[in-house]
Design brief:
By secondary structure, this protein is α/β, with parallel strands linked by helices. It has 15 helices and 18 strands. The strands form 4 sheets. Strands 7-8-10-9-13-16-14-15 form an 8-stranded mixed β-sheet, sandwiched between helices.
């Protein structure tokens, strides 16, 4: 966890970061060093100066900074250069609030690391733990900077069961987010048969968590909410169709979609968004046991549609089916966006560079894509063709969510399946498999969870639904 302090000065900081556009004069204490090194403020360029007034790091911005993503990248470069220091300051006194926010967000995300479960000292590891954001307008930058979604994704499955996840969500109430949790008995009463089946083999019962931000002003009184729906499989063994052992430990991150939705709700609350929003999170552990659901079973979902199970490792689309139907029926939202680490085939198609975007509404898809580009969380629009839907016809039920055999367009089939549960509501589906965590540090992120989707959803609401 990185602590961010917003203030006018930072006497305890061991270095101060100064963003500098190309051609702009450097701070007076750094002028001689800049002249000697040839630093010109180009994008990606840095210059470290040890001046009498303290240690300075100049970060080049180039001729112009390309929106939020550019400021985010500049902050990330600053943190990467100073990871060994326990505390640094970011000089944002010349920046407007949006620029300062993105600058600080980049630094916080690059410096983030999950250490809560470590007990042994790491003397050679980066140890940046506190960042001071220097600004003349602290009241405009009052948002908290906890990496809520990334911390959730980093937790191991034995410490983040569905009940543990729900308990963490209760912390959002202090920010004005309403939290309700439907337990197994309530899920059965309401008929969420797909979610119940996925969680039946685990000692940790499935839950449906519902987060609500009421918004403010005219929108809060007159507008239907925007709905986020997240896949929250706290650990995925594959069920009876068990996964190979190699790499299964990474399945603790199979709840990254739900974590991103929760993080987005926190972001809306922290900036007091006028737009009402809900998040519906399907929480379950896909384990093996005497009560596990089986290939060949037929499940009755909340929508009333029956589903033939072909592969118990296609559990994500089952829990999302009930969560999507619940969100649409209960709240009749203006739009619904679901996030899920859903398929390996989207990683085959897009690698670790973009999330897959599927939709039922071109205007919503364009807005999602624009929001992703603006915040550095890019997506790529993928098709749902008539053949993809026809492939899901079952001989014994209404639908089958996955085809048997290999070499199938599984991401497209999964999206076609999910579309069946949103009725006529404008809908977008983000398959974020491959984007939820990274194996190596980059210019923008540390190793581990990325929190992909949080800032995209927040920006989407700001761009499309707050007007």
């Amino acid at each position: 966890m990185i602590r961010l302090h917003i203030a006018a000065s930072a006497p305890e900081a061991l270095a101060t970061v100064v963003p500098l556009r190309a051609g702009a004069p450097p701070p007076a204490p750094a002028a001689a060093a800049v002249a000697a090194t040839g630093f010109a403020g180009h994008a990606g360029e840095t210059c470290e100066v040890f001046a009498p007034a303290g240690r300075l790091l100049l970060v080049g911005l180039g001729d112009d900074v390309a929106g939020e993503a550019g400021w985010h990248a500049a902050g990330a470069r600053a943190a990467a250069a100073l990871l060994a220091l326990p505390r640094i300051a970011l000089d944002a006194t010349a920046l407007v609030p949006d620029q300062a926010t993105a600058f600080a967000a980049g630094a916080c995300m690059r410096a983030w690391r999950f250490t809560r479960l470590k007990t042994l000292a790491e003397p050679d590891a980066p140890r940046l733990a506190a960042i001071d954001l220097l600004t003349r307008t602290p009241e405009a930058l009052a948002a908290a900077w906890a990496s809520f979604a990334r911390d959730l994704v980093a937790e191991p499955g034995n410490l983040l069961t569905p009940a543990d996840f729900a308990e963490r969500l209760a912390l959002l109430t202090r920010h004005g987010v309403g939290v309700a949790v439907l337990d197994r008995a309530e899920l059965a009463r309401q008929g969420l048969g797909a979610l119940l089946a996925v969680g039946a083999g685990s000692a940790h019962p499935p839950l449906l968590a519902v987060l609500r931000w009421k918004g403010r002003g005219t929108l809060a009184r007159t507008a239907a909410p925007v709905a986020f729906v997240g896949k929250g499989i706290t650990f995925d063994t594959g069920g009876l169709c068990i996964k190979p052992a190699a790499g299964m430990e990474e399945m603790r991150a199979d709840m990254a979609g739900a974590a991103a939705c929760a993080g987005a709700m926190l972001a809306l609350a922290q900036r007091d968004s006028p737009c009402p929003a809900i998040a519906v999170l399907a929480l379950a552990e896909n384990a093996t046991g005497a009560a596990s659901y089986r290939p060949g079973d037929v499940l009755r979902s909340l929508s009333g549609r029956t589903i033939e199970v072909v592969d118990t490792d296609a559990e994500g689309r089952l829990v999302l089916a009930d969560a999507l139907a619940w969100a649409v029926r209960r709240y009749r939202p203006r739009a619904v966006i679901d996030l899920a680490t859903l398929t390996g085939s989207i990683v085959t198609a897009l690698g670790h560079h973009r999330a897959g975007l599927f939709d039922s509404d071109p205007a919503l898809a364009e807005a999602v894509a624009a929001a992703g580009e603006a915040v550095g969380e890019p997506v790529w629009r993928m098709p749902i063709g008539p053949g993809h839907r026809a492939d899901l016809d079952s001989d014994i039920a209404d639908l089958r969510p996955r085809l048997p055999g290999r070499m199938q367009p599984d991401a497209c089939h999964a999206a076609a399946f999910l579309r069946e549960f949103v009725d006529d509501t404008p809908w977008a589906h983000l398959d974020i498999a491959g984007m939820e965590q990274q194996a190596e540090a980059s210019d923008l992120h540390a190793v581990g969870p990325t929190g992909f989707g949080v800032r995209l959803l927040d920006r989407l609401v700001a761009m499309r639904f707050e007007g």
